[in-house]
Every structure is written in structure tokens, then in C-alpha cells.
């Protein structure tokens, strides 16, 4: 599991550790890791030209000490000081001692134009609000340079705790972060400014429960359901799909397509698109009546393409089994009923649906995804999966939010959300908790999207068809 902690948590851990270490030792650990990462990226340090963007705090200090280490190995280093009178003293002395030069933002153009590598030490976890004008101009100037840009701790201008980007920010090719990931490094829009992120251990003792986490291959492999010798289709879990309408039969087909690949023992379909579902997937158990009359089901998916059929949504929500509500179902569900359910409920809105549920503009959800998903989970006492460029999953009980690391913008294709709802619903039926079903579903869905697309457009059906391959990959099994 990759874990991320807030700036406040990091500061508390730093204080505790600094009390036990000699003055400056922690910063030296950070600078050593940073310099090593830069050396890797440069390939050859001797003779390379590096520019350090140095703000007024310790983030600038890290850049200066790392620059001094690289200068001692033969790099030409120039520090651009944003606040010459408030620059980290020790760091500046070290850089000068190693033969580094100093300049001002106004005169930085020629050095930036020649640079092989730019180290962004404008601001780290001490940043507040958008970059101030001079820093913002420097961030914009870096974009014009051909140099490799390495952010110190995080790209200056992103909000460490939320992933918001308030105005101009440094666009990095790589970020070297200290002690732990910061939530903003895992959440869009900020994540897309960070490039490849490398974590440098500086010995912090961090709380076991992080603010944010991201599943990795091994975590997902451990959670995937696997039939045992005594399994039958009911023990593996039966997932019910209440989706589709005369107008949108395809949503039913796609949700069933996702569900059939999700590890449940059987898929029941309830709704008016039974013929279309059977034509494509004869293994589906199709029922014409209301969902509650469809027979035994361990979890329901309700909503994709259901049109205005509020009665079908209410019928599903009244059942005392886990329910995943998506698409039209989110609009038709009675909020009071959602809140009062005792079996697990999973809501899977995209930003527009989330905005409608919260009664705020869509842009507000998109710019503050972490706060929005937490608020939804609290307001509806449900696990909430917020779709988008970084899919986030918030548990109903306020625990750590999960950020999905596998997304791809190729998934932004009609019907791919229906596949996700079926897949996650099947995982719910197989016995995973709401948070695990939603986050494992998003993980596999993202990988399947990448696999199906491989650089060219893929349809939602292709995404569903790629799920078995990525399932095998995650479990480390070679294809038969
Ligand atoms: N505290 C520690 O022990 C360690 C800290 N480390 C580094 O120290 C950083 C935190 O240092 P600081 O607490 O000094 O804070 P920062 O250096 O992140 O930022 C604070 C400084 O930036 C300026 N600033 C704040 N918001 C700004 C904005 N919007 N635009 C322009 N300037 C802005 C402030 O005036 C202040 O001087 C970490 O991100 C990390 O890089 C590492 O060296 C590891 C050890
Ligand atoms: N820019 C993006 N980057 C990565 N994934 C995205 C992006 N935009 C959408 N997605 C994903 O694509 C899927 C689309 O789902 P949804 O919005 O419900 O569409 P539909 O209703 O057409 O199926 C979701 O899994 C979502 O997370
Ligand atoms: K920075």
C-alpha cells in the first residue's frame, strides 16, 4: 500500500525526529536523497548545468544543499533566489563553498535556457494559497525551458493536502518527496504536475493510519476473490444487475459484461433489456419481474441506463444486502432511504452527479475532489467512489480515502462507467467490503482500460473484455 500523510502530520513527525537528531541532520538526509535522484536523471553529473529555484523556506534549503552536493561532483550550479534576504543561510553557504553562483529571478533567463536540470525549491509543504506573483512568473518561465525539472518534495504551487492547483504551478518531470507521499501527489489535478514520484526515507515515524492510500499490485492480488474446492455459484456470490431501459438497453449489457468478469458465481439481470443481455451473454440469469422477486442475490447494482424507473431503484434499496448505486440511480434514490440503510451502500458518481448530490457547481467538485468525496460519504453514510482522472474512494466511516493509481483518460468513453459498476458490484457480491470492492474495481478497470487502449481508442466492451487479462497479471499468473 502506498500511503500519504498531510503536511500537518509530516510536521509533527519531523518535530519528534528533529528533537533526537543533531541540528540539520534531517535536511541533510533529504538533500542526499535529492542529489542522488538528480544524478540518476542526469546520467553524468560532471559538466552538467543545473539551476536551483530557491524560495524563502526549508524547501529552498533542500535545493541548495542538493545543489552543493552536485556542484562538488562537477556540475555548474546557479541558484535563483526569490528572497535573497530570507534564503536558507547554511544551504547558501554550502552552495557558495562548492563554487555555485547566485542570481535573481529577473536575470535567470540565460541560466534557465542553458540548464540540463532545474530543481524546484520554491516552496514545499509550507506553501499557502497560489504562488505569489514572482514565484508564479518563475514557474511559467521553467515551462519554456528544455531542462529536466525536478520538484523538491512537491511541485511548487500545488496544494499538498488536497491536490488543488490554485493558479500557476511548476510542471515537473519528477518529484522527490520526503518521508511519505503527500495527498496532492496522488490526486488530480496536482498529480499531473508531479511527474514520476520518488520517495526518500528520512526516518520519520508516521501514524499507521494515513490520510490517503493507494492500492498496489500486491494489495489487489490479496483481495481478489478466488473459488475454493467447496465453492459453488452461491458461495462465490450472486450479483444482481438492475440496469437498462427500453431507451438504454446497452447500459444493461455493459454492466453485465463487467459483472461477469468480477469473480461472482452468477449474474442475475432484472429489467426490460433481458433479450439484449441474453443475446450477448447467455450465461446471465434473466428475470422480468421486480428485482426483489429475482431470487437470491448477495449484492445489487442499480442505476446504469435505468431512465426514470424510480420504483426499480426503491425496490433494490429496500433489500438488506450490499447495493451499488450508479448513474440514473443516484438521481432517483431517496437520500433518506440511502442514509437509513444498514447493509453497505456504495455510490459511484462522476463529478457532475456528485455535484448534483451535494448541491454545488461541478467545478467545485473537480477542483476539490478529496473534500467532495469525503463530504458525500459522510452525508450519505455510504462508501463513495468519485470517478474521474483520479478516482477516489471514501469509506462511510471517515477512514483513509483511497486514490486509484491505474486510471487512464482512454476510459472517458461512453459506457465504461457501466462496466465499472458491474465489476465492483460482483466484487461486493463475492464478499469484499464496500471500500475494497470499489477500489479493487477501479484498479482493475483502470488497468483494463490501459490494456484495451494501448495507445488507441477502446470501447467500453473492449475494457470489459480486457478484465480477465489484467486479473491474471495482478495475480502474477501467466495466460494459459
Ligand atoms: N522540517 C524539516 O525537518 C524538514 C523539512 N524539509 C523541507 O522543508 C520543507 C518545508 O519547509 P518550510 O516549512 O520552511 O516551508 P516551505 O519552504 O515549504 O515554504 C515556506 C516558505 O515559502 C514561502 N511561501 C509560502 N507560500 C508561498 C506562496 N504561495 N508563494 C510563494 N512563497 C510562498 C513562505 O514565505 C515561507 O518562507 C519541506 O517541504 C521539505 O522540502 C526537508 O528538508 C526534510 C526535513
Ligand atoms: N480523464 C479521465 N482520466 C481517467 N479516467 C477517466 C477520465 N474521465 C473519465 N474517466 C473514467 O471513465 C469512466 C467513465 O464513467 P462514467 O462517467 O460513468 O461514464 P458512462 O456513464 O458513459 O459509463 C469512469 O471510470 C471514470 O473514472
Ligand atoms: K517544491
Ligands bound to this protein structure: ligand NAX, adenosine-5'-diphosphate, potassium ion
Helix content class: 40-55%
The class by helix and strand makeup works out as: alpha/beta
User: What is the CA-CA span between the terminal residues?
Assistant: 29 Å
Q: How many strand segments?
A: 18
Number of domains: 2
Give the low-confidence spans: none
Mean pLDDT: 96
CATH architecture of the largest domain: 3-Layer(aba) Sandwich
Largest β-sheet summary: 11 strands, mixed
Shape: elongated
Classify the oligomer.
single chain
Number of helices: 20
CATH class of the largest domain: Alpha Beta
By CATH, the topology of the largest domain is UDP-N-acetylmuramoyl-L-alanine:D-glutamate ligase
Explain the overall architecture.
With 480 residues, the chain is an alpha/beta fold. The protein folds into two domains: 213 residues, Rossmann fold (3-Layer(aba) Sandwich), CATH 3.40.50; 259 residues, Ribokinase (UDP-N-acetylmuramoyl-L-alanine:D-glutamate ligase), CATH 3.40.1190.20. Helices cover 42% and strands 16% of the residues. It has an eleven-stranded mixed beta sheet with strand order 1-9-18-17-16-15-14-13-10-11-12, sandwiched between helices. Strands 4-3-2-5-6-7-8 form a seven-stranded parallel beta sheet. Strand 17 and strand 18 form a beta hairpin. Helix 10 packs across helix 18, helix 18 crosses helix 19 and helix 19 crosses helix 20. It is elongated, with a radius of gyration of 25 Å.
